[in-house]
Amino acid sequence: MLFLDNIWVILLLPAFGATMMFFFGRKLQKRTVSAVCVGVIMLAFLWSCGAVWQYTQTHVGSQPFEKVIYTWLGSDSGHLTYLTHDGQPAEFKAQVGFLLDPLSSIWLLFVTGVGVLIHIYSTGYMAHEGGYYRFFGYLNLFMFSMLTLILANNYALLFVGWEGVGLCSYLLIGFYFHRKSASDAANKAFIVNRIGDAGFLLGMFTIAWYLGSFRFVEVNALAHSGRYAIGDPILTAVALLLFVGACGKSAQLPLYVWLPDAMEGPTPVSALIHAATMVTAGVYMVARSNAIFVLAPTAMKTVAIIGALTAIFAASIGLVQNDIKRVLAYSTVSQLGYMFLALGVGAFAAGVFHVFTHAFFKALLFLGAGSVIHAMSGEQDMRNMGDLHHRTPVTHMTMFIATLAIAGIFPFAGFFSKDAILWETWTSEGSASGVLWGIGFATALMTAFYMFRLMYLTFHGRPRMSHEVEHHIHESPKSMTMPLVVLAFFSIFAGWMSWPHSLGGSDRFMKFVEPVFAREAQVLTEEGRAAQVAAGVHEEEKSTGTERLFMVLSVGAAFLGWGLAWRFYRHADRDYKEPIAEATPPLYQVLYHKWYVDELYDYLFTGRRKLDGVRLGVMGLGDASTWFDVHVVDGAVNGAGWTTRVLGTLSKWWDQVIIDGVCVNGPAILARLLSYPARMVEWGLVQWYALVMVAGLLGFVFYYAYR
Amino acid sequence: MVPITTLHYLVVAAALFVLGVIGVLTRRNVVIVLMSIELILNAVNLNLVAFSRLWGLHGQVFAIFVITDAAAEAAVGLGILIAFFRNKETVNVDEVDLLKW
Predict the structure, then answer these.
(1) What are the beta bridge partners of residue B29?
(2) Beta-carbon contacts of residue A20 (< 8 Å; ≥ 6 apart)
(3) In a domain, B14, yes or no
(4) Residue of B18, B19, B21 to mutate, testing the A interface (most A Cβ within 10 Å of its Cβ)
(5) Which of B19, B22, B24, B29 to probe by mutation at the A interface, max A CB count within 10 Å?
(6) b/e string for A550-562 if b means 16 or more Cβ within 10 A?
(7) Is the pLDDT of residue A537 over 70?
(8) Is B92 touching A (CB cutoff 8 A)?
(9) Within a domain: residue B98?
(10) Do A694 and B94 touch (CB under 8 A)?
(11) Using a CB-CB distance cutoff of 8 angstroms, which residues of chain B are in contact with residue A682?
(12) What ipTM was estimated for this complex?
């Protein structure tokens, strides 16, 4: 029980790597950085394997294994309580505790497994880049956050990991931060994710208020207890709020806009974070909250509809993009849509299975694309590629396998998971199942088309690059091709883990995961059966024969897409034509400009673009605030100032004219005027005074003499 | 030989008096002004001595007092003058106008 009891070591290893890089990375050699960062992830992977193996050995019947390290929020003594909606006191408490059950086991294994491969790949890909230690520090921090998210035993700790991966995503998208487009893309990803996170937070606190606990085990037990009716409005709100969070993190329809831009980051990041692991966190969270979602059929329908719409919407944009990474980004959004479609129709196990297979072939596609970009000296535009297949044979072969897998061609991995989703959609209850299946089916066709378009434009046709670039084309180093080969192996065989019953297999993967969802599946089947009986649908439709027919249909769709791409792009030369642009130019323009969603958001939400000279959205709010500030606040300030000035002028006039003039200077002037005659006789010469005296004396003398 | 009568004395005294007054009124030098005052005082003394020939010794006694007084006055006047000279470096009476504003 060494591995299972000390499951926290899995988290500690990448945290150690990230800390080392943070404090000492600058001083370390590249070889040391690689050794530490790849080493810890490899150890984490081995430890995870050990933990999952011990778990399967000891926990029969898929009982979850829980290990609490310490109480993180709240206290153990019951002092911190709050009132739930029915007035019962509940303990406010979030632990640092780890939960291992089949669901988190799956994520644990593929996250660490794909993580190791991508770390190894990065040592080759980033070999000539600056900030080597920074890159690996971020990657290790990401692994730590992602593992926290996966292993958390309550919503609060899950949210820590949830924010951590968001932060790392931001840091890594903006890795080339001196490029404006990269830092813009990083901001966009962060801000759009915040919208989702707000929903998740609200959902989380509503759970605490309504159910009185953060812990998954307790929340699930309460949801199963029968105290809450199916369709409970507050649980529906909770489910929808959680789904808003999932929409942000997993790039679903209204909030998907950040993911294509996230391709500004280095390619290994796109592979690890924006394809294989982080973007599936939303799927994980919804699957983890399945007990709540099952009690909220409206939310389930919303999830299914949003998922299906996202799948076809993103696929349609992917049809005409020219940037190799953007095609893959839209493909990722589209595949995530599939996963949510599966969750929404109650096929949790099928959705999780698709996450699992998708992680391998999409990581492989991105790493292959990185290898191509590496060979093309940084060129990402497929219009300037072509004819690479004999110069980069390993990249070509492995990417071809991944393409077969994502297109859903038997017996590659994508076939099994995608087919499971389509089949579950078709057989799910509800009136819209046919429509949803139709959308999924059309998406499968489009997926095959754009993926083979990518393959033909990149590896076949005529070379369209400049001579210098052509001269430098070379196969990538071993450190990059080795992960490709390993991932290619899994892209072929990962799907075999759940070889379906209808083809004589035993569905082992689904069997392994299903206990987590067992009760939900039961509830859904009962509901569904009732609905189907009411709708007059016969049981026969679910037979093995029909399932085989559907498999043939979806493989047929994949081959049809392949055929179309082969026809149009096989000989692509410098002046090749886009078939969609040839057929309907307006549709091509709309698709090429991504349905103008970014422009719409710029009009409505950011306000970067003006509508008739008026800004809406955030910048519009800024404009309104500016107007208010300039006119009202500044007006009041200026008004006060103006009043003071007028009063000051009046006061000055009063002081100068009345006080100084009349009261002070007035008496002085009067005194001066009156003193004038007095001054006349005071002329200050002694002899004059004497003369006057003599004159007076003589006057007296004459007066008395001649009187 | 015409006997010297009181009138002669009076004429001489009047002449002395007028000289004194003119000196006081016209000279700028304070020392000379003070000397002119001595002239005026001595003119008066002369009158007093002249009349004492007719009416007894009272006049002569009074003249002694005047002489004493003149000495005191000269001492005080010259003292003031020296103090003033130290401040203003002048002994001209028309430059003594500090009280005028």
Answers:
(1) B92
(2) A28, A36, A137
(3) yes
(4) B21
(5) B24
(6) bbeebbebbbebb
(7) no
(8) no
(9) no
(10) no
(11) 100-101
(12) 0.84
State the Cα–Cα distance between residues B29 and A234, nearest whole angstrom.
120
Cβ contact, residue pair A685, B24, below 8 Å? no
- Please report residues of B whose CB lies closer than 8 A to that of A694: 21, 25
Domain carrying residue B38: 6-90
pLDDT in tens, A608-643: 888 777 888 888 888 899 999 999 999 999 999 999
Count up the domains in chain B and report the number: 1
> Residue type for A706, please?
Y
Convert the pLDDT of each residue in B49-95 to its tens digit.
999 988 888 999 999 999 999 999 999 999 999 998 998 888 888 88
Instruction: Give residues with Cβ within 8 angstroms of A517, minimum separation 6.
Output: A287, A290, A348, A349
Residue B12 falls within a domain, yes or no?
Answer: yes
Nearest to B100 among A684, A690, A691 (CB): A684
Residue B36 lies in a domain: yes
Q: Convert the pLDDT of each residue in A28-75 to its tens digit.
A: 888 999 999 999 999 999 999 999 999 988 877 778 899 898 888 877
CA distance A514 to B2: 175
Nearest CA-CA partner of A294 in A536, A526, A530: A526
Distance from CA of A685 to the nearest CA of B (A): 6
Residue B33: give its domain's CATH number: 1.10.287.3510
Digit-coded pLDDT (tens) for A356-369 = 999 999 999 999 99
Distance from CA of A691 to the nearest CA of B (A): 6
User: Which residue has better confidence, A227 or A139?
Assistant: A139
Q: Tokens 């009136």 label which residue?
A: A431
CB A591 within 8 A of CB A597: no
